[in-house]
Every structure is written in structure tokens, then in C-alpha cells.
């Protein structure tokens, strides 16, 4: 009777889409690059708990904000929080952050970048890195919880991706604008470049040619910036123009060192580029990541010597050893081909301790999610994601009961997930044909649940393993 009650409860969770498809910890081992031998998802979880406790705050009507300081919230922080909460499976927080984002959008559909409290605009118009992170987080949310509940993550994600394409990519050049209201070829920010997201956007919206061109342009700008300015390793500048040169617009805007140094913007670049290698095996990403990792390992003599700022030629301008710099270089070490250096980098990041600093601790938490295999590419973003009909009548399983194997008859590209009688995720796969074999020969007998989803609608089937 107890098992039956648990099963019914679990089934109701699936119907309400509150059960994450991939609960934390995911513990993914990436197909590309190295994983630290000392990695532990509990480290990421501890960082998340501290981040949530110190930097999130409830507004009203289910909204949440991320505290940039005691009174202000920035769009960057909302989007970082969406990434963290969706991978943690924290649906209430994720939904509250996304509702806050939507409450504070401008006419272009992107969030005004700085808000006092919960609703007073203190900095108008968008910051593109926030849009990129938020849009990708919505793709993960659609994978985690489906899109038939109170928030249609899939539709919202496509709408935001369209807004980015329309307002934050410069027309005809594929240069990423740093906001919807300024920049492009005249000024851009390499630390916003997220080529792994672009590939996912292309698959999610059936627009791969456009988004692959944006990814290609990102590497062109980065490589030109390194070459033109005689950079050591992967030390890109905080800001540059579309040719990779220093931007004439940076100094009038008051950016640190006129945007010419590897400072608190640029320090995020190794993290964003490493993701493209770990998820997609992109050669340009590996080349850049290895340059960054080798700069630390060989030029600086190891991760403990990292400081918070460099001229592009590698000379030191910073003084602090902290998570934004240490962690991004640790992510680069995942593509750096030196296990000992990666292990040391992981341990170095773990030892940094700035729980009261919004920027430093938030980035530490994001980096730790990637380093432990909890910042991953969902299967729903790896193939073209056309909407297709999935009705109860189009899905069947046979034989049922069975001693070991079941065949699922469902539309091609369906996402098929299998849950144990206790509610644990057993397997998941994308259907490459109408008939998909599920082998449960190594599982114990009992009543299993199989969920077949197209991202907007889900059909659940019960099967008996004898």
C-alpha cells in the first residue's frame, strides 16, 4: 500500500510537471574535455544554498529578485539565478525570477537592466548577456518541467530568442550588440559571447544558419582581439569593436581602463567558451580554452598565482585572488589537457570564500555547476525542435507486461523518459524513429512510468516489469 501511495503521488507530480526531468545532481560526464577527479556535486549544492540564502528575496505575487545590493537588482543577476535554479530543479524560484524579468521588460521585450527593489526602473534597456542566459535557461526549463503549466517556457524562450535576434544582433554583420539600445560593430563585449547557446538557439528555433553565423563571428572577433593586441594566452579585453580593436566608444562610457584590459568583464570569457567545447567539441573553443589554461599553468606557474586583472600582454594589474578569475580559468582547464592542473584549479576555486559578494559568489556557483557536470546541454536543444502532434492515440507500448524489453511507438523526436516505481529517473532518450526499444532487463520488477514529450505536451504510460 505504501509503494502504491508513493507511485500515485509521483504520477500526480508528473501530471503537474513539478518533477524535474533531470533532478540535481545531474553528474554529467561531458563527451569532450576533462573532469576534475576531485569534483563533488555537494560543493555545487553548498554554493547554491549560500547563494540563494544571501542573494534572493521575495517580492509579491510569487516574484523573486536577486540582490545586486540591498536595494538594486540587475538583469544579469536575474538571468544567472534562472540558470542556477533551473539546473538545481528549484521550480518555484525559477518561475519567480522569470516573472520578475517579464514584469520589468521594455518595449523590445528585454528586461531593463537595473531595477530598484521589485519594480522601479533605475537603468533603462537591456544588457545582452542577461537575455542570452535567460533564454537558454528557458530552454532548460522546458526540458525540466514541460510547457503545459502556468508558464509556457518553450513559447517564452522562442519569443526572447527572437527579441535577441531582432534587437541585440547587429543587422547584416552577426556582431553581438551589448544591449538592445547601443553597440555592435562600434563596441561589443567578448565576455557576453555565448557560442554554445547560439547553437542551442538555432536547434530550438529551426534557425541554425543564422545562429551558427553569430557563433562564427564571435570567434573571429575574439581571435582578432588577441592577435591585434599581442595578447598573452586568452586574455581578451573587456570591450572592443567588431574588428577586435579597442573601441573608441569605451572611454567616453567610463569603462575601466577604457575597456582595454582583462578585467571583471573579460574574466568570464573562458567559462563561456569552455562550455562550447564541452557540449559541442568546437575546435575554436578548445584552442581558446587551452590558451587560457596554459597561461595560468605555464606563464603564471599555477592557479594559486591568479590575480584579478591583467593587461592583454599578461602583465599584472590586479591584486586579489578570487572566484571570478580563478573559476573561469578552472573551466578552461577542462579543455587544457592537464589533469593535475584541472584538479588543482578545482580545489583552488573551492577554497575561495566570499559568500557576501554578489558577483564573486554567484560566478563561483555557476562555475562549480559546470565543473561538477551540472551545467549541461538538454537533449531537447540538440535536435531541431519542430512542434509535432502527440496525442494519447499516437503513443503505445508493447508488450505490457514484459519480462525485460518494451517498444514505444511514438512520433520521431519525442523525448522518452523512464521512471522507477520510487520516482527515480532510469533513462531518457530522443526517439530517432517511430519505434524505440526500452530495455529494463537490469531493473527490478514493478510498475514503471514512461513519459513521452514533445516539449509542449506529455503523455504518461504505466508499464509492468515482471
UniProtKB/TrEMBL annotation:
So which domain of life are we looking at? Bacteria
- What EC designation does it have? 3.2.1.4
> Mind listing the GO biological process terms from this record?
cellulose catabolic process
Keyword Signal applies: yes
**Annotated GO MF terms:** cellulase activity
Annotated Secretion system C-terminal sorting domain residues: 397-464
**What are the record keywords, sorted?**
Carbohydrate metabolism, Cellulose degradation, Glycosidase, Hydrolase, Polysaccharide degradation, Signal
Catalytic activity from the UniProt record:
Endohydrolysis of (1->4)-beta-D-glucosidic linkages in cellulose, lichenin and cereal beta-D-glucans
Q: Could you tell me which Pfam families the record lists for this protein?
A: Glyco_hydro_8, Por_Secre_tail
Family, similarity comment: Belongs to the glycosyl hydrolase 8 (cellulase D) family.
- Tell me the protein's name: cellulase
Q: Which organism is it from?
A: Flavobacterium hydrophilum
Amino acid at each position: 500500500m505504501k509503494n502504491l501511495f508513493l507511485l500515485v503521488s509521483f504520477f500526480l507530480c508528473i501530471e503537474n510537471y513539478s518533477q524535474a526531468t533531470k533532478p540535481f545532481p545531474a553528474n554529467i560526464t561531458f563527451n569532450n574535455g576533462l573532469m576534475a577527479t576531485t569534483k563533488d556535486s555537494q560543493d555545487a549544492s553548498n554554493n547554491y544554498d549560500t547563494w540563494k540564502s544571501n542573494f534572493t528575496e521575495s517580492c509579491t505575487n510569487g516574484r523573486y529578485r536577486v540582490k545586486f545590493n540591498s536595494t538594486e537588482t540587475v538583469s544579469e543577476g536575474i538571468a544567472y539565478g534562472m540558470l542556477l535554479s533551473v539546473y538545481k530543479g528549484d521550480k518555484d524560484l525559477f518561475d519567480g525570477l522569470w516573472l520578475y524579468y517579464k514584469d520589468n521588460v521594455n518595449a523590445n521585450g528585454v528586461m531593463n537592466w537595473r531595477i530598484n527593489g521589485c519594480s522601479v526602473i533605475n537603468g533603462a534597456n537591456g544588457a545582452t548577456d542577461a537575455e542570452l542566459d535567460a533564454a537558454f535557461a528557458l530552454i532548460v526549463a522546458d526540458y525540466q518541467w514541460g510547457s503545459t503549466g502556468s508558464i509556457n517556457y518553450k513559447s517564452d524562450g522562442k519569443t526572447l530568442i527572437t527579441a535577441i535576434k531582432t534587437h541585440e544582433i547587429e543587422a547584416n554583420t552577426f556582431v553581438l550588440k551589448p544591449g538592445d539600445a547601443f553597440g555592435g560593430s562600434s563596441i561589443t563585449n567578448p565576455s557576453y559571447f555565448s557560442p554554445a547557446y547560439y547553437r542551442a538557439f538555432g536547434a530550438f528555433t529551426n534557425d541554425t544558419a543564422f545562429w551558427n553565423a553569430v557563433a562564427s563571428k564571435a570567434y573571429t572577433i575574439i581571435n582578432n582581439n588577441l592577435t591585434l593586441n599581442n595578447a598573452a594566452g586568452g586574455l581578451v579585453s573587456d570591450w572592443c569593436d567588431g574588428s577586435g580593436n579597442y573601441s573608441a566608444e569605451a572611454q567616453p562610457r567610463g569603462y575601466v581602463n577604457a575597456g582595454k584590459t582583462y578585467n571583471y568583464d573579460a574574466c568570464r570569457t573562458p567559462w563561456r567558451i569552455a562550455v562550447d567545447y564541452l557540449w559541442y567539441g568546437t575546435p575554436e573553443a578548445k584552442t581558446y580554452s587551452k590558451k587560457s589554461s596554459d597561461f595560468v599553468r605555464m606563464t603564471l606557474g599555477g592557479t594559486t598565482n591568479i590575480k584579478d586583472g591583467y593587461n592583454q600582454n599578461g602583465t599584472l594589474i590586479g591584486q586579489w585572488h578570487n572566484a571570478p578569475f580563478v573559476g573561469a580559468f578552472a573551466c578552461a582547464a577542462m579543455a587544457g589537457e592537464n589533469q593535475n592542473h584541472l584538479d588543482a584549479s578545482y580545489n583552488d576555486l573551492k577554497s575561495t570564500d566570499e559568500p557576501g559578494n554578489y558577483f564573486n559568489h554567484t560566478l563561483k556557483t555557476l562555475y562549480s555547476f559546470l565543473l561538477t557536470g551540472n551545467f549541461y546541454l538538454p537533449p531537447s536543444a540538440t535536435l531541431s525542435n519542430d512542434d509535432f502532434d502527440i496525442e494519447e492515440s499516437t503513443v503505445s507500448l508493447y508488450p505490457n507486461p514484459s519480462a525485460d524489453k518494451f517498444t514505444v511507438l511514438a512520433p520521431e523526436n519525442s523525448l522518452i523518459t523512464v521512471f522507477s516505481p520510487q520516482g527515480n529517473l532510469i533513462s531518457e532518450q530522443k526517439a530517432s524513429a517511430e519505434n524505440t526499444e526500452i530495455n529494463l532487463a537490469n531493473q527490478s520488477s514493478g510498475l514503471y512510468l514512461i513519459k513521452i514529450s514533445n516539449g509542449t505536451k506529455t503523455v504518461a504510460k504505466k508499464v509492468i516489469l515482471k
